[in-house]
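Fill in residues.
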């Protein structure tokens, strides 16, 4: 089987439960490069990667944004996909996201709100789901987009295009910022539908209202800087 000229970046922080459940479904042997960016895991995640012969790059600075930057900084290939093995993201969508880049798109996003998609936003998560949709609508209005999910981190991107966006935010703002800046630069963006699963083990470190405030600050910053980034 021919491997894709691409890099798969697995993002972890104490994700041993998800790795045990999902690893055999992650197409690490279908791409020419796969490695993990790990931040201070203490639950057996690092030993698991060692047994599976997956290279681990240790993240010193906290935050998802830094993990994205480290992933692109260390990727050998132009086409890069980010995957978090926490149960929310479907490993079956990893290769489709990469293949959209091969078709000429600059970025591909696994959308939880497109037709035939489903998000984990029922019950107490309904507020988060509403917020995700609202911030996507705002981005579309302000920067003339047609996205259905500007916030999901499960996406692929061309490395050169990622650096063109000069992402300088921190934490969970990274996905929203690069979506907005990609709209500003009129990148070719493709969304594919995904069904978001239930989290496996652990807990989400994204706090709904704190993250919402971060997104508001990103909007204000992006309005201020325009295309000067």
């Amino acid at each position: 089987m021919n491997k894709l000229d691409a890099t798969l970046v697995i993002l972890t922080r104490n994700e041993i439960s998800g790795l045990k459940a999902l690893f055999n479904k992650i197409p690490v042997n279908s791409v020419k490069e796969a490695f993990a960016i790990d931040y201070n895991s203490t639950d057996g995640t690092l030993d698991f990667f060692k047994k599976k012969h997956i290279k681990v790059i240790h993240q010193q600075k906290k935050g998802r944004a830094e993990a994205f930057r480290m992933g692109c900084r260390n990727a050998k290939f132009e086409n890069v996909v980010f995957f978090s093995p926490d149960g929310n993201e479907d490993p079956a969508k990893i290769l489709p996201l990469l293949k959209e880049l091969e078709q000429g798109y600059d970025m591909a996003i696994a959308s939880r709100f497109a037709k035939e998609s489903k998000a984990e936003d029922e019950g107490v998560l309904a507020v988060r789901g509403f917020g995700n949709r609202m911030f996507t609508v705002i981005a579309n209005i302000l920067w003339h987009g047609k996205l259905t999910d500007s916030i999901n981190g499960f996406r692929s991107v061309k490395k050169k295009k990622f650096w063109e966006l000069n992402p300088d935010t921190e934490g969970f703002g990274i996905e929203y910022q690069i979506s907005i800046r990609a709209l500003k630069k009129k990148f070719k963006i493709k969304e594919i539908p995904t069904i978001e699963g239930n989290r496996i083990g652990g807990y989400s470190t994204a706090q709904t209202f704190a993250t919402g405030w971060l997104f508001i600050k990103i909007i204000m910053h992006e309005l201020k800087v325009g295309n000067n980034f």
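The chain has a mean pLDDT of 93.
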